[in-house]
Each structure stands twice: as C-alpha cells, then as structure tokens.
Design a protein that fits this description.
Order of helices and strands: HEHEHEEHEHEHHEHEEEEEEEHHHEH
Number of strands: 15
Strand content: 15-25%
Shape: globular
Strand order of the largest sheet: 14-13-12-11-7-10-9-8-15
CATH superfamily of the largest domain: NAD(P)-binding Rossmann-like Domain
CATH topology of the largest domain: Rossmann fold
CATH architecture of the largest domain: 3-Layer(aba) Sandwich
Largest sheet: 9 strands, mixed
Helix content: 25-40%
Number of helices: 12
Distance between the termini: 32 Å
Number of domains: 2
Length: 384
Amino acid sequence: MTSQIPKTDDASNASVLAAMGGPEHRRIGIPPLAQGARVAVVGLGLMGARHVTAALRRGHTIVGLVDPSANPHALQLNPDLASLRCDTLAELRSDTVDLLVIATTADLHHRLATEAFGLGFRRIVIEKPVSQSVDEAFDIKLRAQEKGVRVIVNHGRRYCDAYARVRQLKGEMGDIRTVTLRFGGGALGCVGTHWIDLANTLIDAKATHVFAKETEPSENPRGVRFNDPGASVMIVYENGACAFIDTRDDVGFVGGAAISFSKGELTWTDEFGPWTLRRRREGDLDRPLSRYGTPLFPSLFSPSVTALDPTNLLWRHNGEQAVLGYAASAMDDALGDHPPISGIDAAIQTMRVYAAARVSHVTSSSVCIDNIESASLARRFSIP
C-alpha cells in the first residue's frame, strides 16, 4: 500500500508537537509526522472530540463527522464543523477520506469496521478496546487483510516515549521480570485493557496463562447496556515474567506502577511524574541476584524528554495533552507505511488476555490462553 499523504521532516514534527503544548508523548523512532490528510471521525463523544482536536492540531482537514446525535460533544467544542455532521457512515465517500477514525463505544466497533471495509476506506484507526470479543477482533483482522486495509488500534501508550525508554533500560538493568499496575475504579475492559496492553508491550513476550478475580461493578456511567467489572489479574508470560493488574471496583481510584528489572525497579504513583528509578550502583551490578540486601539507589527518571524539571507544571498536569498526543500518533501510525506500532495483532493479544481473565473468574482457576474454548472466544462482553 503506497501512501499519497505528504510527510513533514523531523524539524516540522517537533514544531507541531511544541505547538500542541505539553511533553512529547510520541514513541521514540516513530516515522515523521504526516500532515495534510483528510480525516473523518465516527462517534463524536469525548474520545471522538479528542480525535477531532488532535487531527486539527496536526494540520489535517476534517472532512466528515458521523454521529446520529443532533449536538454531540465534538460539535459543542467545534460548532464551525456542524455542517460536516451526518447520521451514517454510508453518507461519506471513501475516495474523499484519507483516514477514518472509529471512536464510538466498543459495541459498535466491529459493525462499523466491517461497513467501512465494504465502503472502500483504506486507513482506519479504531479506539480501544478493538471489539467486545476475541472473535470479532479476529474477524476485523481477516476482513482488513482481504481488503488491503491498514487498521490501527489506539492503545496509546505504545506511542509514549517514556515507555520506549523504559524498555531501553533492559540493557543496563536486566530483563523486566514483573510489571505491577494498580488503578481502582473498576472497568477491566474499558480501562484495564490499556494496562494489559502496556504489560504486553513492556515484557515483550507471549502471555500464556491468566488468573483473575472480578469485583462487583457499580452502575456503568456509559449506560445500562454496559457491564464492565474490575478485577485483580495475574498474567504469566512465556519468558517467566509476570504482570499484576488491579482495577478493583471496591477501592478508591488510586494509581501506581512498579516495573521490576533484574537489577532495579522503576515506580510511579502519578503517571505524569515524577517517576523514581532505583538501581544497583555500578560496583554491585555483577553480584548475584540472590544476594539479599544489595542496596538500590534512587535517581530521577523523567516520563518525558521535554519535562526534566519535576517542578515544571507540564510534568504533573499533562494528562489531556498525553491523550491528544496518543490520538495523533495513532493517526500517524495509520497514515504511514511502516510496520504498525499499535496494529490489530497487538489488539487481539490484549483481547485474548481479557477473555482469559473473564473465564478465570468463572472457573476460579488459572487459564491457559491457548486453550480457551471457542464459546469464550465468541462471547461478546458488554464493555464500553
């Protein structure tokens, strides 16, 4: 597939990021920024509005907005785009759209993606989770391959320079052995799939087994058709590493992460800083890992190369800018011709772990992901 979208150089890329405000959250090594694309967005709620904002800040042109609501959130923020709104995807002409973004709730992703393939759209970003079942995710992949469509799923932390640099620490601190991510407030499907994908990305190995215990969800703010319990989840990988993900409904919304290497640990309680890196001093690097009590010494680790000062307000208050950065990076990923950074295969792996977690809760046992029965792969989980 040959892109006809003009590309900017790295200097232009940096200037656009600076204009967006806040630290750079693009993945290190991502190809240069694409500008001048014609973008259409389906679903104009909170996340759709972010995609509209990100596209405009990237220098793209919004050419279509699809939402049956008369005055959706994205148009409340951008009333000058109201003339572009239509009720259905079929009202858009694919030959006038370079990139289609599907930003609805997950219950509509499979249907809309299937419709988009049939209408001739060739570059598509789908919000996470990619679908409500593993089978739906596989079906999206197969249909995309058949039609020659590039599909990107916005698991945004795959584009974050901080986590790319965390993976680069392996050369100095050894392999990542455990990843612990804690976020109360429930929603293993809607929110927790972010953290499942992040664990998969950091450990960079195939997940093999899952054990999970769900909590009782409260009423879902996105509507009664959704039921998205939180859970405590343990994921085991083929290289022996483990991830622990906690999105319980019965604790306050607290955050935190601990990424344990063979010879040190990186932690944060606020993802946007500061982060603390604790590592062995140089003279202790070759001592046996079993030597109890080998001291670890803290040093500052910035979550962004442009926010090195922990007193800088951009360090602590850039959550919305990060989300916009992830959305823009997903668009860049979709508009490029490089190997996908957050493609459909990665999204399928996340859905397989999620499905295994739901099965594990029901069976009260560890589940081998490769042995999940076909009924569980086909089950549509009512996650938003």
